[in-house]
């Protein structure tokens, strides 16, 4: 049964985003505003990429979202710049004092520390008390505004 489910998930992703292939992925954050996207939901990532196009905001994946860089239909967005950090279980230390918002899609969310609680946004099945949740309308404006407000790294 689990193999059948994995096959269906693969078919869903490859039908929409084409067949992935291995790529080198940048792990260095560039100067300026950026957003970190964690989880598995490639459609949420794509919608965020569409909504940030031309706004001067770079997008970086985190944890389980790393494979997104292999899909040709996602690689066409030049502001999908790379991957930040490591695995989901390290988010508490990796997101501490990060000058950018973090969007959690379909993934594990560790208890949020006060040092980054004002920068956490959730969507889909992920939620956390007092965090901004992006609903079914998928309007990522609050995440985009936070990225612009924080400004990212200065160098």
Give the SSE map:
Layout: H1 2-17, E1 34-38, H2 42-52, E2 58-62, H3 72-75, E3 80-83, H4 91-94, E4 102-104, E5 120-123, E6 132-134, H5 141-150
Parallel strand pairs: 1-2, 1-4, 2-3, 4-5, 5-6
Unreliable parts: none
What amount of the residues lies in strands?
Answer: 15-25%
The gyration radius over C-alpha positions equals 15 Å
The main sheet orders its strands as 3-2-1-4-5-6
- Helix segment tally: 5
pLDDT average, as an integer? Answer: 91
SS elements, strand count? 6
First-residue to last-residue Cα separation: 49 Å
What structural class should be given to the helix and strand makeup? alpha/beta
**Fraction of residues in helix:** 25-40%
Which sheet architecture does the biggest sheet show?
6 strands, parallel
Order of helices and strands: HEHEHEHEEEH
Outline, from the CA principal axes? globular
Q: How would you describe what is shown here?
A:
This protein has about 160 residues and is of the alpha/beta class. It is built from 5 helices and 6 strands. It has helices at about 1-15, 40-50, 70-75, 90-95, 140-150; strands at about 35-40, 60, 80-85, 100-105, 120-125, 130-135. A 6-stranded parallel beta sheet has the order 3-2-1-4-5-6. α3 (about 70-75) links the parallel β2 and β3 (about 80-85).
Compact description:
With 155 residues, the chain is α/β, with parallel strands linked by helices. It is built from five helices and six strands; from the N terminus they run H-E-H-E-H-E-H-E-E-E-H.
């Amino acid at each position: 049964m689990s193999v059948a489910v994995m096959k269906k998930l693969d078919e869903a992703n490859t039908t929409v985003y084409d067949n992935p292939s291995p790529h080198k992925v940048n792990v260095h954050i560039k100067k300026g505003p950026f957003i970190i996207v964690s989880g598995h939901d490639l459609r949420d990532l794509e919608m965020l990429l569409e909504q940030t196009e031309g706004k001067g905001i770079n997008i970086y994946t985190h944890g389980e979202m790393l494979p997104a860089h292999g899909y040709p239909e996602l690689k066409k967005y030049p502001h999908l710049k790379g991957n930040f950090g490591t695995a989901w279980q390290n988010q508490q230390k990796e997101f501490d004092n990060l000058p950018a918002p973090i969007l959690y899609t379909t993934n594990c969310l560790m208890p949020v520390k006060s040092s980054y609680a004002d920068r956490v946004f959730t969507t889909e099945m992920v939620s956390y008390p007092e965090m901004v949740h992006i609903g079914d309308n998928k309007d990522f404006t609050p995440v985009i505004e936070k990225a612009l407000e924080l400004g990212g790294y200065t160098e």
